[in-house]
Structure formats: structure tokens, C-alpha cells
Design a protein that fits this description.
The complex is a heterodimer of chains A (555) and B (316).
Chain A lengths: L5 H4 L4 H12 L5 H6 L13 E6 L16 H8 L4 E3 L5 E3 L19 E5 L14 H12 L14 E8 L2 E6 L6 H6 L29 E7 L3 E6 L12 E6 L3 H10 L4 E7 L4 H4 L5 E16 L9 H9 L3 H8 L5 E2 L22 H10 L3 E2 L5 E3 L2 E2 L1 E5 L5 H16 L3 E4 L4 H10 L5 E6 L10 H4 L20 H12 L3 H18 L2 E14 L2 E2 L18 E2 L2
Parallel strand pairs in A: 1-9, 1-10, 16-17, 16-18
Antiparallel strand pairs in A: 2-3, 4-6, 5-6, 7-8, 8-9, 10-19, 11-18, 11-19, 12-19, 13-14, 14-15, 20-21
Helix pairs in contact in A: 9-11, 15-16
Chain B lengths: L1 H28 L16 H10 L6 H13 L13 H36 L4 H15 L2 H15 L16 H35 L2 H8 L4 H24 L2 H4 L2 H6 L5 H10 L3 H29 L7
Helix pairs in contact in B: 1-13, 4-5, 4-7, 4-13, 5-7, 6-7, 7-9, 8-9, 9-13
The chains are: A alpha+beta (555), B mainly alpha (316).
């Protein structure tokens, strides 16, 4: 087997690297040794041992193309492979394809319209059937099948003239150039055509006993409790190094943490360790605990359709009145990173030169005075009959966020702005109320990106406002023609430098317009037992166990 | 007796239909719905959500949805879970036995202990034991199960390492002994409250019977204290207990939510909460119907059992 994707699989643990760095600094290790990797803990030659991963939500959807939540993707990554994956550096690495198609290697034509995918030979499904280009074709067709409860059609809808040239080669055309498509393909797990033969794909037995090509095979599910996966010893890539992976559902975060402490689970997965436990957790003996940034950005978002928020000076003033750092330090234990943009700081497209936020209530007041918002009899500012009073909503029961809201409420009151809190249960909050822009303002955490791709048209394009009949999630009703133009430009070129220029500029424009006040990028506290090696956080995927195939025990 | 049964059956069916209409309406009229959990997924659009809603039939008028659900139910089709696409009865079945194991064990413990604590408290009224039992029951009833469970885990798992911190069995083991070890903490934690409840009921019931004329008569005709207790007092005092036990039957479907959560026990309580959280209407409706049926059966059985034990009651 050709080892043509070494970088993503070569993952020494942090501890090992530190040891090595120390050692080589002292001149104990000959530099030549490093290259051979002799000093690294070697994964076992045969799959050995098991790892139990605790999740606070239950994975229940095993067909990766049906509507699901992020925790389900933990199972998908273990069982299936996409054509190529996004590694922790945001780079594509081939999986079922032998190379990542690009303009340079001829996989994508210069105009972005003609694609050629070369596939691995000799890959077998878990049931022994051979994997071929027909399966890839079937997967993309299934996604746009009108009778199938498809999770996502964006991008796939543009595919036409799909042709299986040979069992290891597939070509297709796009109706229009669409730069995010490689990212979408990297999140599209290939499913076996033969598992859907002559049956309704919505009720196929496959959906509850998935068959993939991935490092682990479906073994057993105990509903409400756990899922067991066994090593796929014929896996084409590196690994698996574990005999068994168990995904254990532990619905309460306190209990999840307790079971991590008692050693009942080896790795704390999704929803992780709550920030308030970090101080204790980082000193637990025999455990490695670290703060890991996530792509989700917390913001105070405005409904720009409301008269209060028409004036850019108002939004700027509110930003000055927002004491971000105190919220982060006092409520979030100092863990999240303050940010000025929707783009994760780990992204290659992140604009690091945006103006830094300052907390300055005096400046906020003078800005409002300047713009003609004068305090009325009740101390609330108003202008032309519009009072600077609005509601703010978020998910009821998210206690830290509710405290942040109260803090913000007080800060705004000090500059003569009346923000009243009106929180709703999650099912109501994120239903029509959010989607159809029925709120005044919200506090919300959003991952703006799809995978690693910087395209945010879905959220920020002027054509994506659902309340105005657009297809998308621009619930701010943020309309800026320049933004639309930049998004179009970035979304249709495959030249990285041009794309970067467009998105860097875009962040500048959004920072100036402030349809939402960016607060911070989420931080999660993750932990695993000492000895579990290969656990690498990846901000480009939604789940911890994306690389579980290369985890192993260093005993 | 037969006429009584038929009458009851008929009433029950009407009741079930009413329960289903109300349940269905309340569930569906609550804003939100099964798709709102997907709203904040990166890349999700309103159009895509609308398409999924259409495929799931959620965009049709409510009466139409109800009628379809109802006619399918009549044919024995309870529908499929929105979450994992499994038939509703299979979903419920897979959680039911975990709950039966936990609730069964714990009910057995609490009835056995509770009954005797109650009896002893009654016949040794105002003794030290009685006071201790009364205070103990008050304390047990006042401690939140969640807190008590976590304390027990802290003590017996984290500190002493005697018992597992939760879960129904060790994955990969699953022997009877393994189950038993895992059952100890959750069943005792759950039993604690019930022992308190049962002992209180039992104490009152025994005290009630003890002061009746026939007890004095029995003593007067020369029976020993023990014989009177066993043959006359207990038999009479147990009648209300059986009714109570019958009424407890439907709570099995509700499971022991808190205990199940603390000890990660995959039972009905958690199924119910998770299904509500995900707006998994078919499963919630299934649980609602089954618990309504169990309430009716539980009442009926309690009526019959009481009639069997107590010859003064005749059904008909």
C-alpha cells in the first residue's frame, strides 16, 4: 500500500514531542534519529485494546446522508471514508481518492467546471464487496434524489454528466464553478450502492447497520447506552490500531466528568468538560486535559430589519459598551479567545488585522449623542420616535449565557439603552423565531463555515435572507451589496490567493458594519487518559473522533 | 364480574382515544418541532429544512397527521422514531427491560424493607425505633435523588473504589454477577425514597387495623400476638398496599429519570426525556399511549386483587 499521505497520519503526541525537544536540545538524540521516528511511541502492529469515548448526546443516525446532529458524525468518521479528508491544518488529504483534485494536478479544469476523480484500487466494503466508482456516483445521486430525506444538497445539485470511466475513475461537470465543493466532498461519506438495491433508501436496513470502508466496522448498538465498533483489519489507510471503539452515551455533563475521573471512560467527547471544572481537571493524575478552540463564534446578533439597528453608530456604540473581557474572564473562566470576526482564527483565511475592540462606555455615549440619540424622560435614548429599547433572546437554560445576557443588559443600561431579556426553549428559539427573523437581538454561537471552506454565503449573502424569501440563514437580514460581490468572487475562483483576498476584505467590511457584535471563539476543555495517543483536535470537523483510526494505547 | 370487565374495557377505549387526541395536539401545537435542532447546523438553509419537513409530512394539517397516525395505529403500526428510524415498539422495548430490572429490584427492596419498618414502627409505636424510622423517612424523602446519587458515586466509586460509578454492565462482560454489581448502587439509591414512602403507608395502615374490634376479639380468644399480627393485622393492612402497588405500575414506563441519568442507566425515563428533547413525536405518542394503557390496567388489576383479598368487596 502506497503511503502517499504521511503528514496527516504522522502524529506524535505532544508529550513525546516535548520530551524529544528537550532531549535533542541537550544533545542526547542525534538529529538523524528524528526522521526515522525511532523515538516515538510506535502504534502496535496488530489492533490492540479498546477505547471508550463518552458523548453527552446519543448518536442515532448512522446513514451519514440523513438529517443528523454533530454527535452522529463521530460514528460516521469511524465507519466511512470520504474521497478526501480535511486534516487539523486545514489541508486536504486523500482518502478513497488517490489524489485531491485541483487545477494544478488537472483534476479540476481551469474554469472549475470539469472534474476528474481517481480512486483507490482494491478497497473493500466491510461486507467484502469491492468499492468502485459506481459507489461514488450512487452517493452523489442519492444526495439529490427527491425521494430521499437528504441531509444536504448544496453543491451536489450542480453536478451533471457524471460518468464512470473505469472502476477507479469518475468524471463529472459542474453547472457553474463552485469553490466550496471540495470542502463539501470532504464531508461527504461514500456509501455502498449495493446496500440500497431495490429498496426505499429512507428505510434501508443499512441505516441501522451501516456498511462502510472505514477503519471500524459496525458491531453492536444498545439503544440509549452505547455503540460498539470493531477494527476493520483490511483497512486501506493507516490503522486501525485499536481492536474496538465504544461510544458511550452519558446524558449528564457532571456524570460524564465523574466517569472520566473514575476511569470508566477513556476519552471525554462531545460537550466535553464544563469550563468550571477546568481548574480541577487539569491537575487530575493520569489524565491529559487541554483547552481546545472550536470554530464556533459567540456573538450578540441584531435583526437589522428593526428600526433601532438601522444606524451604524448605534451598533458601534453598543460594541463599545460591551465588556467582552469581563464576560470571558468572569463567566467563562478565561478560556475562550476574544475575536473580531466570524472566521475561526485557525483558518488560513482569517484576517488578523481587523481593528481591536475596546470597552469604552464614554465613547459609546458620545457616539450616540453625536448621532442624535438623546435620553428621554425615562433615561432611555430615543431619536425620531424610535426608542433604543429591544429584547434579547437565547436558549433558556444555558446558564452561563443567561448570566452574560444580564451583564450586557446592565452595561447597555449604563449608556441609556434598554435591553430586556426574553429567553425561549431551544426548540422554539431556533425554529421560526430565529429562521424568519422574528427576534430583536439574540446571543448565539454559530459555526459559520462548512468544513474548512471560508464560504459564508449561506449566512451573509444579501440573497440568503429567509424572511425575504431567500434560501439561506441570513437571519440578521444583513444586506450589503459589496458583501454579495465579494462572496460571489470568493466562491467561484479556485485560485487560493484570489480567494484569500476576497475573504480578508469581506471580514473587514463585516467588522465595519457590525450586523453582529463578535464576542469570542468557543473554547472546549477536552481530556483523555494518559496513554491514549493520536487524539488530535481538528477545528475543521465537528467531532473529536474524526481520526479514531489512528488512536492507540501507549502502554 | 364479566359485565364489570366489559364495562371497564369500553370506558377504557373511549378514554384512550381522548388521551391520544389531547396528547397529539399538545405535542404538535408546542412551537419548535423536530427540525429546530438542525437550525444551527453549519450550512443549513430554510429551504432545506422545509424540504425535510415536507418529506416527513410535517407540513400537512394537524387533523390529517393525526388521522394517519390513528389509522396506522389501528393496524398495529406505531410508526418509526424520528431519531433512529426504528419502529416505535422496538425502541420502547429496548429500553423497557433496563427499567424493569432497575425498578423491579428497587421496588422489591423497598417493599420488603418498607413493609417491615412500617409494621415494627406501628407495633412498637413511640419507641426509639419508631422515632428513628420517622426521622429517617423524613430525611430520605427530603434528599434530592440526584445529589444522593452523586454522593454515593463519590464515596463508593471515587473514594473507596468498591462499586462501578454507573452503567448497567461492563461492556464486553455482561455476566449475571456483573449486572448485580452494577445494580447495587442505583437500586439502593432509588429504593431509599420508596422505603420511606412504603414504611409510612404501612405504619398508618397497621395502626388503623390494630385498633379495630376484630383484633381485640382475636386476642381475647387467646391467639398469640404474633399470630394476630400475621393472620389478622397484616392481611388487612396489606389491602391498601396492593392498590398502591397497582397504581405504581404505570410509573415503570416513566422510569426513574433522575436515577437513570446519574447512573447512566439506559431506561425509559431517559428515553422519554430524550424523545421529548428531540421532538420525536412517534415515540412520545407511543409512550403516552402505553402509559395510559398501563394506568388503566393497573387500576383494573388493583380492583380485582382487592376483591380477591377482601371478601367484603364484590365487583359487578
Amino acid at each position: 500500500m502506497a503511503d502517499d499521505h504521511t503528514p496527516s497520519w504522522f502524529r506524535p503526541s505532544r508529550r513525546r514531542v516535548l520530551t524529544l525537544m528537550g532531549a535533542s536540545a541537550a544533545g542526547l538524540v542525534a538529529p538523524g534519529l528524528l526522521g526515522r521516528g525511532a523515538a516515538f511511541a510506535a502504534p502496535p502492529s496488530e489492533p490492540t485494546g479498546q477505547v471508550i469515548i463518552g458523548f453527552s448526546q446519543e448518536p442515532t443516525v448512522f446513514n451519514p446522508h440523513m438529517p443528523h446532529i454533530e454527535v452522529d458524525e463521530g460514528i460516521h468518521f469511524s465507519i466511512f471514508d470520504p474521497l478526501f479528508i480535511v486534516d487539523e491544518k486545514g489541508e486536504f488529504q486523500p482518502a478513497l481518492a488517490t489524489e485531491v483534485p485541483s487545477v494544478e494536478n488537472g483534476g479540476i479544469s481551469k474554469d472549475g467546471l470539469h472534474w476528474k476523480i481517481k480512486l483507490r484500487d482494491g478497497v473493500k466494503w466491510h461486507d467484502g464487496e469491492p468499492f468502485t466508482a459506481e459507489d461514488v456516483k450512487f452517493t452523489i445521486e442519492l444526495l439529490v434524489n427527491p425521494d430521499f430525506k437528504s441531509w444536504r444538497r448544496d453543491g451536489h445539485e450542480l453536478v451533471e454528466n457524471m460518468t464512470v470511466v473505469s472502476p477507479t475513475e469518475l468524471t463529472f461537470d459542474l453547472k457553474s464553478p463552485y469553490a466550496p465543493y471540495p470542502s463539501i466532498l470532504a464531508a461527504t461519506f461514500i456509501v455502498p450502492k449495493h446496500a440500497f438495491k431495490d429498496i426505499d433508501p429512507n428505510n434501508a436496513p443499512f441505516n441501522n447497520a451501516p456498511i462502510g470502508t472505514g477503519p471500524f466496522k459496525w458491531a453492536e448498538r444498545m439503544a440509549g447506552d452505547h455503540i460498539t465498533l470493531d477494527a476493520n483489519k483490511d483497512y486501506f489507510g493507516k490503522g486501525p490500531y485499536l481492536e474496538r471503539v465504544i461510544y458511550k452515551y452519558i446524558p449528564d455533563l457532571t456524570v460524564l466528568y465523574t466517569q472520566f475521573k473514575t476511569g470508566d471512560i477513556d476519552v471525554v467527547g462531545l460537550q466535553w468538560i464544563t469550563p468550571d471544572k477546568y481548574a480541577e481537571a487539569k491537575d487530575l493524575p493520569g489524565k491529559s486535559v487541554a483547552v481546545v478552540p472550536a470554530a464556533t463564534v459567540e456573538s450578540l446578533s441584531f435583526n437589522m430589519g428593526r428600526p433601532q439597528f438601522q444606524d451604524p453608530k448605534v451598533r458601534q456604540a453598543l460594541y463599545y459598551a460591551l465588556d467582552k473581557q469581563t464576560i470571558i474572564d468572569a463567566l467563562y473562566y478565561g478560556l475562550p479567545t476574544p475575536t473580531e470576526t466570524f472566521m475561526p482564527q485557525q483558518s488560513a483565511y482569517y484576517n488578523a488585522d481587523l481593528p481591536k475592540h475596546e470597552y469604552d462606555p464614554e465613547k459609546a455615549k458620545s457616539l450616540l449623542d453625536e448621532a442624535g440619540w438623546k435620553p428621554g424622560g425615562d433615561g432611555i435614548r430615543e431619536k425620531d420616535g424610535v426608542k433604543l429599547a429591544f429584547t434579547n433572546s437565547t436558549t433558556a437554560g444555558n446558564h452561563i449565557r443567561e448570566q452574560a445576557q444580564q451583564f450586557i443588559q446592565q452595561s447597555f443600561k449604563d449608556i441609556g439603552v434598554d435591553m430586556s431579556i426574553s429567553n425561549l426553549p431551544p426548540a422554539v428559539m431556533w425554529g421560526e423565531y430565529w429562521m424568519m427573523s422574528k427576534f430583536d437581538s439574540v446571543v448565539v454561537g454559530i459555526n459559520f463555515l462548512t468544513g474548512s471552506d471560508p464560504d459564508v454565503s449561506n449566512y451573509l449573502a444579501p440573497t440568503s435572507i429567509p424572511a425575504k424569501g431567500g434560501a439561506g440563514q441570513n437571519t440578521w437580514q444583513y444586506e450589503n451589496e459589496e458583501v454579495g460581490k465579494l462572496l460571489k468572487q470568493g466562491g467561484s475562483t479556485f485560485v487560493t490567493e484570489e480567494r484569500k483576498a476576497a475573504y480578508v476584505k469581506l471580514q473587514e467590511v463585516v467588522r465595519k458594519d457590525l450586523p453582529f457584535l463578535p464576542m469570542f471563539q468557543y473554547a472546549t476543555v477536552r481530556g483523555h487518559k494518559d496513554g491514549v495517543e493520536g487524539v488530535v483536535p481538528n477545528v475543521n470537523v465537528r467531532i473529536d473522533s474524526w481520526d479514531v483510526g489512528t488512536w492507540y494505547w501507549d502502554k | 364480574m364479566l359485565r364489570f370487565l366489559f364495562g371497564r374495557l369500553w370506558q377504557s377505549l373511549v378514554l384512550l382515544v381522548i388521551v391520544s387526541v389531547i396528547g397529539f395536539a399538545v405535542l404538535n401545537l408546542a412551537p419548535g418541532g423536530p427540525l429546530s435542532q438542525f437550525a444551527l447546523t453549519p450550512g443549513m438553509t430554510q429551504a432545506q429544512l422545509a424540504r425535510i419537513a415536507h418529506q416527513m409530512g410535517l407540513d400537512r394539517p394537524l387533523p390529517v397527521q393525526y388521522w394517519e397516525w390513528f389509522t396506522r395505529l389501528l393496524q398495529g403500526d406505531w410508526g418509526r422514531s424520528y431519531r433512529d428510524n426504528q419502529p416505535v415498539l422496538a425502541v420502547i422495548g429496548s429500553h423497557l427491560w433496563a427499567t424493569l430490572l432497575l425498578m423491579g429490584t428497587s421496588t422489591l427492596i423497598s417493599v420488603l424493607i418498607g413493609t417491615w419498618v412500617g409494621v415494627l414502627g406501628a407495633i412498637r409505636r413511640y419507641s426509639i425505633f419508631d422515632y428513628a424510622a420517622t426521622v429517617g423517612a423524613m430525611v430520605a424523602l427530603s434528599i434530592p435523588t440526584f445529589w444522593f446519587g452523586l454522593i454515593a458515586i463519590y464515596l463508593f466509586s471515587l473514594r473507596l473504589g468498591w462499586l462501578p460509578a454507573g452503567n448497567m454492565y461492563t461492556i464486553g462482560d455482561g455476566s449475571v454477577l456483573d449486572y448485580a454489581v452494577h445494580l447495587i448502587m442505583p437500586s439502593l439509591v432509588l429504593a431509599l425514597v420508596n422505603v420511606a414512602v412504603w414504611s409510612r403507608y404501612m405504619r398508618t395502615a397497621v395502626l388503623d387495623v390494630m385498633n379495630q374490634d376484630f383484633v381485640r376479639t382475636a386476642r381475647a380468644k387467646g391467639l398469640t400476638r404474633f399470630a394476630v399480627l400475621m393472620r389478622h393485622i397484616l392481611r388487612n393492612a396489606l389491602v391498601p398496599m396492593i392498590t398502591l402497588l397497582g397504581l405504581q405500575l404505570p410509573t415503570i414506563l416513566g422510569g426513574a429519570l433522575v436515577t437513570e441519568t446519574v447512573f447512566t442507566w439506559p431506561g425509559m425515563g431517559r428515553l422519554f426525556l430524550d424523545s421529548l428533547g428531540y421532538s420525536d413525536y412517534p415515540v412520545v405518542m407511543g409512550l403516552l399511549m402505553l402509559s395510559a394503557i398501563l394506568v388503566l390496567i393497573g387500576n383494573l388489576m388493583a380492583d380485582i386483587a382487592v376483591a380477591v383479598i377482601d371478601p367484603r368487596i364484590r365487583l359487578g
